[in-house]
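Think of the structure tokens as a kind of shorthand, similar to the way a musician reads notation: each symbol stands for something richer, in this case the local conformation of the backbone. In the example below we present two proteins back to back. Begin with the first one, reading the sequence and then the tokens, and try to describe in your own words what changes along the chain.
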Amino acid sequence: MEATGTDEVEKIKSKFMSAWHNMKYSWVLKTKTYFSRNSPVFLLGKCYHFKTEGEYRALHSFHSFSAGLSTDGSNFDNINTEISGNVEEFRKDFISRIWLTYREEFPQIKGSALTTDCGWGCTLRTGQMLLAQGLMLHFLGRAWVWPEALDMDSSDSESWTSSTVRKLTASFEASLTAERDPKILPRPQRRPARRDWDVTEMRNEVYHRKIISWFGDSPLAAFGLHQLIEYGKKSGKMAGDWYGPAVVAHILRKAVEEARDPELQGITVYVAQDCTVYSSDVIDRQCSSLDSGKAGTKAVIILVPVRLGGERTNTDYLEFVKGILSLEYCVGIIGGKPKQSYYFAGFQDDSLIYMDPHYCQSFVDVSIKDFPLESFHCPSPKKMSFKKMDPSCTIGFYCRTVQDFEKASEEITKV
């Protein structure tokens, strides 16, 4: 009876902390992110220019970015921005990345009374995001974008923790330093109905959902929080502990090794030792026989835990980090501020672009057919000065073939 009483107390504490962190971290979707029109923006190896000489076009105002309230309560529904370049393509690309955040009310974690990872699971979440990007490259390719990326406003899904997400999402158009045109532009046309999709679109939709389902918050999900915590126990970590970027790298390697889904047998993970990638070891992993007995090589996700300075990040590493995020092989960086992990996916000038896991959303059952996707895609990018970056981080790369690895090695050496 005493143990039962203790469990009840832990459950109440867990719910209280979920509510507390939900309020504490709600600010991340209130603040606006500012982008310059005059500098290129890099996102996981792709470059976007928001200004092209002599070429200007009006941008549609999408609810996902502009329906939110600003910090002073004003509304951007009817504000449109004149700007040049391919902002729309950048937004679509960014939103298409898989966003994994704190969750609450998921099945209890084995060996604890926890049903949320609020306040402690951020590095596991950023690790999941990095691995998810590697899997997206593997199954969907870098050119893929979610067809519904700019239609997130059309969903009334209850998978969001609260309407705050929709109301307080940062206004991307309004944040750009450009002239504003009060004229109301027509809303974009919606995508074709699912019955009009071609075979490729249907295949991509299947893999999109399958990849997200592998990160579901349930004991059965291959790369879900429950499984990652089990693998972390061998590193002395328990549910509720804070995980560092290097520990998470080894947890991800173990999770991929133990994955039993036939679809995952063609991919492996290599973790660098002492910041050194041994080419022969990587190639050996790629050339290891597939479990199915079929000939061929495995794709590899290379994780490199590094430290970019002593107590603070050395600014001499800025160009190095920029060079890494400019490579087509890069799948992002697990980093952030001290005790606060972010998933870095790009940069503009001396600021890093990231996705923030510090927002508590409700559990989504990814085992059901057509589960809601909206809460797995971030509606707004955020930026942080490189100077604020914690020196401890893990850099990720994806190479589909041995030839890709050799080419990536050459490019990384140049960086």
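Once you have a description of the first chain, move to the second and do the same.
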Amino acid sequence: CSSQNTGTFVKYDSFMSNGLCTGYCTGYAYAIVQGMNCYCSDETPASTVSVSNCNTDCSGYPYEHCGGDGVYGYILI
């Protein structure tokens, strides 16, 4: 979880989940989620925050978290 977004915007999807974003980011090191947005990146953020800050439920799969308020959830692919 980081306040930095090192990625490039890939997709807005009202059914976003960690798995869906990971699928969009095949070939990258990270899938990055925040709300209904998905970004892909090969760069690790310079700073991180507690994963407890990534507490926004994913719209497509509410048992997962898709980032948080002002922070991005990083998923290592």
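Compare your description with these statements about the second chain. The beta strands are 8-12, 30-34, 37-41, 73-76.
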